[in-house]
């Protein structure tokens, strides 16, 4: 793998993993949610759309971490003639 491609993979996957982790945590705690039966926003029930967004962001985070690890482990190939 070329050094340039490896660098882009590392940078891109790290950024995607970071954004995905932030979205997952924010949707887990739901600071915007309020309900009559609970004092804290974390105790309110999660809407189905919110659960879908959180699940997708968690999966994207895991895939991005996997790509990051693979990009770290892959050695640069040398051309053999």
Features:
81 residues, mainly alpha, 2 helices, 65% helix, rod-shaped
Average pLDDT metric: 88
Summed up, the domain count is: 1
Strand content: under 5%
Helix and strand run = HH
Fraction of residues in H or I helices: 55-70%
pLDDT < 50 stretches:
none
Q: What spatial form do the alpha-carbon principal axes imply?
A: rod-shaped
Kindly, what is the distance between the CA atoms of the first and last residues, rounded to a whole number of angstroms? 17 Å
**Alpha-beta classification:** mainly alpha
Instruction: Describe the largest sheet.
Output: none
Radius of gyration: 19 Å
Question: What can you tell me about this protein's structure?
Answer:
With about 80 residues, the protein is mainly α. It has one domain (about 5-75). Helix content is about 65%, strand content about 0%. The protein has helices spanning about 5-30, 50-75. Helix 1 packs antiparallel against helix 2 (about 50-75). The radius of gyration is 19 Å and the shape is rod-shaped. It starts with a helix and ends in an 8-residue tail after the last helix. The relative contact order is 0.20.
